[in-house]
Fold these 2 entries.
Entry 1:
Amino acid sequence: MIEPLYIPGDRWLHRLPAGYKLAALVIAGVGLFLVQNVWGLLAAFIVAGALVWSTGVGAAACWRQIRGLVWVLVAIGVFAVVFQGWLSAAIVLLRIAALVGLALAVTLSTRSSDLIAVCERALMPFERLGWVNAGKVALALALTLRFVPEIWRHYQEIREAQAARGLARHPVALLVPLVVRTLKRAQQVAQAIDARGE
Amino acid sequence: MLIEFDRTVVATPQSQALRGVSLTLDQRRIGVVGPNGAGKSTLAKLLNGLVLPTAGRVTVDGLDTRHDIKAIRRQVGFVFQNPENQIVYPIVREDMAFGLKAQRLSADDAAQRIQSSLDSLGVGHLVDRASHTLSGGECQLVALASVLVMQPALVVFDEPTTQLDLRNRNRVARAIAGLAQQAVVVSHDLALLQDFDRVLVVVDGQIAADDSPGPALRWYQEHCA
Amino acid sequence: MMKTQDTVLIALFAALIVVLSLVPPIPLPAIPVPVTLQSLGVMLTGAMLGPTRGLFACLLYLLLAAIGLPVLPGGRGGLGVFFGPTGGFLLGMALGAFMTGWLARRWVSVSGSNLRTVLAYGVACIVGGIGAVYLIGVPWLASVTQMGLGKAALAVLVFIPGDLVKVAIASWVAWRVERVWPILRESP
């Protein structure tokens, strides 16, 4: 039910290995904070924008991802202009926009499975220490993806039942059955896994 | 396979689910009926170690459930009442592969077994479907397929048709009837058990009747309806 | 020792947080911004599962967002939020789940009176669901926007009333559910 944000494509950004993109993003994250020059940050913002555009993302999808941030930026911008002046405001806004843009470009051009593979490699030393069980993490990930649609469906059923009885949206009456059923489901799913498990 | 219950007791601080049951089962089709809370599910779950006896023991093909659970679970498959909570992975194919992990098959062999297991139940076309799009009946059949793909000798069903509509109930009933493996079926659906070899009636934690389907189900209807 | 049951609970509560994040925001009287149920989900997760499982469930939720799935409110996701001004609030939620769970397990007792139990959950949710979240979120916001801590704290003040309503709801729900299905006391 949840469609990944990844945009399938074959441009050069898509073909860069996920690990490199993540590393570059982290470096950019640190680096941009060291840059105080507004023109440098403007250039970074333009580069970020170009990278996002190069992923082939549609306008609607892109807007949905940055919509929330835009309001936050407006608030921050107004605040910064009032208390710190136009130049400071421009620096702060451009930096944030550039960084979020770069991160968005990575998300749009990298498969979720590739990012998971990077996580697995990063967790390997911890697995050798016995702190993390990669199999269980993978199972948990699969279980969550499997059951989000079912829990969503149950949420809708409860809401419809409430509406049918003329009840306004009552959060407690909605959440108690939702949580109880999730707990019950957990018990049954665990038994089913144990019955088939290794 | 030979299933033996030896003075098996399952007790919790609150109640006694099973009081000293001793049985030997080796028939091909065994049914289990009884009122709610009588201990039928407990009896079924003893067969693959999901429930362990608090006293006495349960052996399947000579293996004790308290010591050899892994070996037993390779031989004994289990199909549960709730169709959707048995399918654990987002895509049917992945879920089928989950049970095969321990068997270390080659990718091709695994794929072939998965497809033929689904085909044998008439749901081969579901192999690449998203799990949440399956109907109740399809879930049950896929769950059964994911059990069969591990090639168990015995399959235990705990009220497999209770949550299904009539058409899907019939599909599952046909699947059970056509199963090559030995089967133990706990059910409220008495018609399901009509052609079985043996039916146990569990009342209040004990075996109240143990006979071929005709007499056993009649006893059940006279005393428990 | 993590049993299958624990892994499944972690996974399903992560899924629950996803569902609650995607429920359309609810407008509340006298509160300027409609509230999302995301932090409510996190509070509930900590309150029901305890510190370790609660933390892992929240981390799993954050991982889903990080790898590019639209599980954040409004269907957002990906690394963008983690690298933006509000990233600290997400990490704060993970700490919050842990704190809520830790306090709930310490204070919620089976034998306590109903009022005491709900209050115990309430304080646990305030410390975890509000305190921990802003403890990390506000300094992060302040440094990304170069706003200064005091001003950043002032900026988030507008969300507190909505958060308190969520605390009340989460405490009530946790109490009701735990009565019917006690799992807080289990390991780990």
Entry 2:
Amino acid sequence: MNIVVLCKQVPDTESKIKLLGDNSNYDQEGIKWVLNVYDEYAVEEALKTREAGKAAKVTVLGLGPKRCEEALRTALAMGADDAIHVEDPALDGADAFAVAKALAGALKGVDYGVILCGKVAVDDDMGAVPQMLAELLGIAQVTVVSKVEIEGDTVKAYRDVEGGAKEIVQAKMPVLLAATKGLNEPRYASLPGIMKAKRKPLVKKTAADVGSSAAENKTKVAGWSLPAARLAGKVFKEGELADRVAQVVKLLREEAKAL
Amino acid sequence: MSNVLVFAELRGAEPKKVSFEMLSAAKQIAAATGGQVIAAAIGDGLSGLGAKLGAYGATKVFVANGVAKYSTEGFAHILAGLIKQENPAVVLLGATAQGKDLAPRLAAKLGVGLASDIVGFRMDGNKFVAKRPVFAGKAFTEVTFLAAPAIATVRPNVLPIGETNGAAAAEAVLAADLGGPKAQIIEIVAGVSKRLDLTEADRIVSGGRGIKDKTNFKILEELADVIGASVGASRAAVDAGYADVSMQVGQTGKTVNPTLYVACGISGAIQHLAGMRTSKVIVAINKDPEAPIFQVADYGIIGDLFEAVPLMTAEAKKLLA
Ligand SMILES: Cc1cc2nc3c(=O)[nH]c(=O)nc-3n(C[C@H](O)[C@H](O)[C@H](O)COP(=O)(O)OP(=O)(O)OC[C@H]3O[C@@H](n4cnc5c(N)ncnc54)[C@H](O)[C@@H]3O)c2cc1C
Ligand SMILES: Nc1ncnc2c1ncn2[C@@H]1O[C@H](COP(=O)(O)O)[C@@H](O)[C@H]1O
């Protein structure tokens, strides 16, 4: 059984987001790019599964401009075996559907039992590509997965739902699993791992190869805006703590109407 | 005939609050598209949904009864069938554990677009334009749709509930046919907390590393009991084992939208703010006057949380008595 892991490159969560002058997009200048945190959990789970003898090979798959190679190399340095990079200007501005369609196309002829990915990309916050991909491939999906058990070709996945409850979902392979925090502790790439990653195979595919392009988009981002700044609040530091607390509670009731 | 369809998510057999929020939004959308608000519900032991959903603006409710457990593929199958039959212009689902799992699958099945976790919308003529946060609320995008229907998941606790005195809606039966899903829920493990999930809570009391020990969460629980809040935590508190991972608020935890958020012993790191900055009122209790949390707090109390929180509990008890 082989595993495919979807890897997206996103701005580091520390990034300050500024917009371009015409509000058509965010400004990518000076951004530090990293592998999406939830995809790190996915890579780690794939590697653990292979190390437990339940998978033969781990392939990572990513779509995006040239720089996304770095995210794929990060996953290879962690221990993945090979990579597929869908890179084509025709996919610039692809929405979740067009991306899912391209990823589905890239998986044609690839033999897999499990697709692992993140539950959400921390740039667009969509949480949609995994489910769309599972539908396009006609396979089972489990999202927000915090634990996976594999027995033969049966997969049991624990899905985190409201109030800390978990739904245990079972399906036969092939199945797509979208990881959340708690699944595992992702390893760091070792120095030898980083050296080795440079020589691991990375196959390029074009939009034509995978049968998708921005023409498949079903949505369009019409514009960007920034949130209104929060006005500076009242800080209570002088006087007895009890009086200050009492004042805040009173204001919560009378001014803020929050109690 | 440009109706708006709301997937009315249920808790047990009752509609969740977000279902009412969506119906109210759907009424505004339908006013612009010149259609009606229709609703769909899937569950078990359902009754009286025509009246319950009609009150908030639905004129027709399609009910699939006898489905005891959620199934992504099964629910997508039922809703896709209904959408093909009714041709709505816009379809709304909750941005809940269920809606977030279901909506993208449904959109792909229909070959249409999705905007997730929307916090607002406007009508450009009869075209639905959705507003959604990206980068955990550091920015917003406006999304337009190139295919019909437009599907969106709606973040709970954000859109206002309008009129609640509508006439009972007509009920229609929806076949409870899941279409042979490949994945099945075989067991549900109940959560530890009896409180409302953070994503739905109207008030939240959160603790950070400053809480120092798991047992100290008790003082936050006591405040939460008095003001009717749910209890959250920072990642540092979760990583230190003080709190369950389901309680984490922030970039890699939950995004919350309560009326009141009380941050106790939380410094206010950017990844924490990402999950709670849209709270309507933020109170911070921290002994460090330089803590960044004070830059977003509406009311800040500089002081020791172990003294301030019990005092707040006592004050709130007096006030709410
Ligand atoms: C990729 C990534 C994702 C992340 N995701 C999240 C996330 O989802 N959620 C999240 O919260 N963090 C997240 N973090 C971590 C984040 O950067 C911070 O490390 C974390 O939020 C700090 O938690 P804290 O405020 O509880 O702890 P600290 O920063 O250690 O702050 C503790 C605070 O408690 C105060 N304090 C101590 N004792 C008392 C007392 N007795 N009374 C009053 N105040 C007291 C201190 O003054 C201090 O301000 C993420 C980080 C990364 C890199
Ligand atoms: N361009 C992409 N390349 C590879 N994987 C992706 C891409 N976009 C999304 N994914 C995967 O889908 C998950 C959810 O992304 P999203 O739906 O964009 O929030 C991510 O964590 C990735 O695992």
